[in-house]
Amino acid sequence: MDATAATAEFKPTWVQDKLFLGMTFKDYFRSNLTPFNAVVTAILAVGIPVILYRLIYGLGPSTNLSNNNPWGIWIGFDMLCGVALAAGGFVIGTAVHLLGMKEYGFLFRPAVLTGFLGYLFAIIALTFDLGRYYRIPYPMVVSWGVNSVLFLVAWHVALYLSCQFVEWCPAIWEWLNLTKLRRIFMKTTLAATIFGVCLSMLHQSALGSIFLLMPEKLHPLWYSEYIPLFFFMSAIVGGLAMTIIESMASHRIFAHQVKNHDPGQLDRVTLGLGKATSVTLFAYFFMKVVGLAHGHTWVYLDTGYGYWYLVEVIGFVLVPAFALMYAVQNRLVRMVRGWAIVVALGIILNRLNHSIIAFNWHLPWADRYVPHWMEVVLTITVITIGILTFQWIMNRMPILYEHPDYEPERH
Amino acid sequence: MRADRRDFLKLLVGTGIITAFGSVEQAEADIANLPGYPNQFGVLVDTTVCIGCRRCEWACKQWNKLPNRKDLSEYEKDQSVFRTIRRTQADTYTVVNRFENPRDPSKPIYVKKQCMHCYEPGCASSCFVKAFTKQSVGAVTYDASLCVGCRYCMAACPFDIPAYQYDDPFTPEVTKCTFCFDRISKEGCVPACVGICPVEAMTFGRRTDLIDLAHKKIRDNPDRYVNHVYGENEVGGTSWMYLSAVPFNRIGFRTDLGTVPIPTLGKPFLSLVAPVFITIPALAMGFYSFKKRRDKLAEEEIRKILEKKEGK
Is B278 near chain A, with CB under 8 Å? Predict the structure, then answer.
């Protein structure tokens, strides 16, 4: 009797309600003693000192960067892959708010959140790569290098981050019960989505265009005048694949949040996303073939790099395109999810090929770049902090479910 | 009569355009001929003359007060550096490398390497804070007070010249040859390396004169040189140019760079920015209103059907 009475009487304060999930600090702390958090703690215990080491001792001792290889995995993986795989927010936003595909509406908030955090942590990782990270606002406020593709990337990524923040804001205001603010921000969603489409088209392709200036360093099979288009198309693929993966994971991990969870609905939507991925992959594959023909680089196919190129373009583009088509036609949802992972890995492979593996291919092996262990640890640490942030938000804000007090978004 | 009309047109167009944008002929000339800075300086390096004494390396370090300076005698004595092919480093703006001479193995070829000071520099077009400037005297200079340290310039340089102070944790800078900008801006002064060269392997002068000189040398000594002035057309032309007795790819130069300036490669993409911001919102709004209209019509249809049913 006493125990139930006690819980009934316990009225959480604002802090307890918003931050400790309605528990006292003690209970909240105890609820966090999980195996997952043990792993996280272990990663952070190594990773935070590595970050500090990088900041105090500089890039020299903490990376394998050199004068010949000025960019490593912090650019090639954290930035290029992070941004490509975070394209889900823009893809789903377009589908739901512009094309009116209402059945995908429940994916919008998780996709935007994933996109926002993906960009945010890509930028955080980039900060560690910059020699003078404290000057990161310089391209915005001090000196405009308007002839640089990177200038475009800097501005667009910053603007797009704000765009996604605006799109995500209604969830924050619902969490904090700020009805008026929420109403204002709901009205901006459409404008933010359209602006976001323009920004995404440009900066996703601009990340590829960075390599347009390096025809003598990037292997001819990857260097193409079509790089902007390749990067844009593959970012759409990456965004779709990550939405499939992310919705699978979060509906499993946070299943308790979704009342009246209808697995059938998620399956239907997953099949739709799988179909879109397959179609985009086919289009992307044919564009890649056109790129080969346009650059007349067929001769390189019968070389070591050529085989590696075929692994990427056949193994991670064409084969998944067929596999997804087969899975969608036979309504094999699990197969769609499995191949979505392969597709996402293919995007990572593609970005690493551009930035590291096929980059500086003319140099002897001794002068090539292999990441330092601290570069890898810092990358893992940043991703871990990203996942923690995602989890923290998912546990508090109405991302997967509709807040009972509010009307859902309508367009 | 025709002349009158032309004059009239000139007056009409001219007053409008010239006041706003400068002269039309000048603009057309810019597009067609890319004169850039026609009076810029350059250096012609004759690799058949260089003896590999490395005094230029010493002089460069002295003038630019670079770290790890050594006595001139040590530079002259130390032949071991030639065992590997070196590149520019954070503390070294220029290096001399030794290559085997396929024509006469007893006489190795020495090649000085430093920033080529491109006509249209890749580094300058890559920099998102405009830290690089092509000066009218020819030098490509770097302003460390703007640099954020993204190192795109290093990746965008076709000659792999800019280096980075990786070991400086708080204020690292990109480093590269300055063409002794401070010196050559003064009348009658030459870069430190050119000034110290004991065999006059390097000739400093107006770039246009140097091109004439280079071709004259080749014409007068067809057996001594290959018929190629490296830097005359590479990546759109460079201020530093080279003469050689053997094909340039045998002495550490890349001969696959082409003649297109690096900045040109990024321009078509940058020209897409404005069109995307104009056409995409228009298309998106169009799509959106079609969708709205379709939904509205469908709703009305349903209402009509329901009303009919109720009416019966």
Answer: no
